[in-house]
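Bumping with the actual sequence this time:
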Amino acid sequence: MIQLSHTSKQLKGEVNLPSSKSITNRMLILSKLYEPDLSLENISTANDSQILQSIFTNSDSDMYVHDAGTAYRFLTSYCAVSEGDWVIKGTQRLHQRPIAHLVDVLKTLGADITYLDKEGCGPLKIKGTKLKAPTNLIDISHINSSQFASSLLMIAPLIEGEFNFKVNTKMSSYAYVLLTIACMRRMGFSVWVQGGYIKVSKKQKFDGEYFKIEPDWSSFYYWVSMVHLSQESDLIFPGIRLNNMQKERKKLFEIGHPSIHFEENRDGIRIVKKQIKKPYDFPEELNYSNFPDMAMTFACLLPALGCKYMKFKGLESLKYKECNREHALKKHLQSMKVEFKFVHKKWHMDSTQFHVKENTLFDSFDDHRMAMCIAPLSLIKPICISDSSVVKKSYPHFWDDLDRHGFQINYL
């Protein structure tokens, strides 16, 4: 357990964000399949990415992915098209997360996959074989997981036959399907997208020797939240760009204030906040369908900024994450005297009684994002967080970065 606080409420200096684990995981799979000699620069040190890289380095047919859900789903398709006999297993929580929709599609393509325990869940036994599309249309529009869709897209060039995928563009986190398409294109594959139809070329035209992975936008938003709650800030984030492969930038100006200024220069993005005594003007509703991982950060931030009421959309997938994040977020907000309930397909937040008691203990729920989303509140009052080690999953040096920028961290 840690106690977290900040005396001056001022944030100044440079923050080197972790590289994107979303891009890293995709490029590790793609390079293994199509460009084994590709040099990947700035590989994420997040636990998920390190697990995937270690599996490929060791060439072990018995794959233990721990709690790395992305690696689990991507490796399922990878093993289905890769010669050999494979076993993929992980933690008990990971085995509770359903994978049947992905396995069912792979089986229609000829994949040899067996459930070793409960039907529809891991662990899995896979015998790699040649896959073939039975028709010219592979309809996966019933799939509401961007990682399932991405997993299939990345092996598309290795599936025999000419075909299109039909996807649900309104699925949760569809922006990450677009990220996968961007990675495929960077690898030299042509990808045609028309509405919900996607076709990937069989031919590859890749002439690069290395690929540099961008900083992670999801990590950037924890710092954006801290800037909002600071008295003054002047922070530089090297390497992060508004024009990049990740689409999370669309949320950058959704919660704005005249005291905060964003400036993009050759080094990256600079954020400056000066004291301006003017209330926030909040939208009536926020939609996180494409970026549900950011919902917790903003839900914890808004009450502290004076937002009394807010409606959220697109949180349906939260209960299937590393923990049940819908439940965990509700618990976080209850600790701040904030009501959060589901009414008529939307989540309603009532912050009229918002109050953070000094040294309130917030549970990490064994989930990196549930620990980091609450950390900015320490700029208001000292708070306690139950398990600080969980950040290793995506942002291993998070607490070190906070320490370098004036946060006091006491390990209790």
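The tokens above came from a reply further down the thread. The first strand starts at residue 2 and ends at 6.
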